[in-house]
User: Fold Flagellar basal-body rod protein FlgG from Sporosarcina newyorkensis.
Amino acid sequence: MFRGFYTVGSGMIAQQRRTEMLANNMANANTPGYKAEQSTIRAFPEMFMSRLDAARVPTEKGLSFKGLNPVGGLSTGVYMQETLPLFAQGQLRDTELKTDVALIDGPMDVNEETGVAGTVFFTLEGENGDQYYTRNGNFTVNAEGYLTNPSGLYVLDATGNRIELPNDDIRISEEGFIFTGDTQAATLGIAYAAEPDTLSKRDNGLFTTADGQPLPMGGTYSIQQGFIEGSNVDAGRTMTEMLTAYRAFEANQKILQAYDRSMEKAVNEVGRVN
Assistant:
């Protein structure tokens, strides 16, 4: 009986965490460059149950021996194993700002084992010199003349250096070349992740590599100036999944209440002497 409490409880915890993940997706449905998270729910290893019986042998002395009779498998609950970002292309939004740029994915190699395609990112530099990666191309030129993202991180060029510009009156080609007038000032550093599901997700739509090593430059892409890539969250589908997770949580809750009533009856009524 008590095992049932643990099994139902694990199901409620898994659905609660899934609901929190989906709510976070909904909250970021309008965040530029945001990649929706997906969850995987797995079952704990099953227990194989057997019954200990005593079998009698038809002999003069009536010998008996103990044996195990299989009963069957017993589930021990479920858990949310991990969350992984969905790196599908988001819709482009027209901002008409010259410092806004959107990455458009070209044909990418697909990992045969995982079925996940590679993807490309803008390259950023943090305060401590670490590299970050993002799909949010909502850039501005700061007071020092450097191209930065909304968090103040520096946008890097193809050689890993900060991009310094005289002003925000720039032109950016589809290949990522930045021009001030007729002069090429820099080239946007576009990093390629062959296995994007191995990246670590950070706050504000940023990603880092697991080992801290920078990603190589490359990939097939085009750049659209005056646009930003929107979130790839499907609001309708996310709402449906939230309702499904809530119903699953509610079903586990009702089972838990039934277990509680059974235990209350066992404690207060079974074995009572009238």
About this structure: Residues 191 and 216 are 6 Å apart (CA to CA). The chain has a mean pLDDT of 87. The chain has two helices and 19 strands.
